[in-house]
TrEMBL record:
Organism lineage: Eukaryota, Viridiplantae, Streptophyta, Embryophyta, Tracheophyta
Pfam families named among the record's database cross-references: Acid_phosphat_B
Stored Gene3D superfamilies: HAD superfamily/HAD-like (3.40.50.1000)
This protein's name: Acid phosphatase class B family protein
């Protein structure tokens, strides 16, 4: 799922958590999350396992 213009200005952590919630409501299981920012990993629903990858180009606090 991609962010739409309606999502502009919304907190990225909340957006990603909402997308995971939509997927689980459709019956999908979130087994793993892979991301280079904590915003990709944080929030509920969570996954069985998460992978935080380094990104030497930038880091969002």
């Amino acid at each position: 799922m991609l962010r739409d213009s309606d999502d502009e200005g919304k907190d990225v952590r909340q957006f990603k958590a909402n997308v995971r919630k939509q997927l689980t409501n459709k019956g999908y299981c979130i087994w793993g999350i892979l991301g280079d920012q904590w915003s990709s990993i944080e929030g509920l629903p969570s996954a069985e396992i998460t992978f935080k990858l380094p990104n030497r180009l930038y880091n969002l606090a």
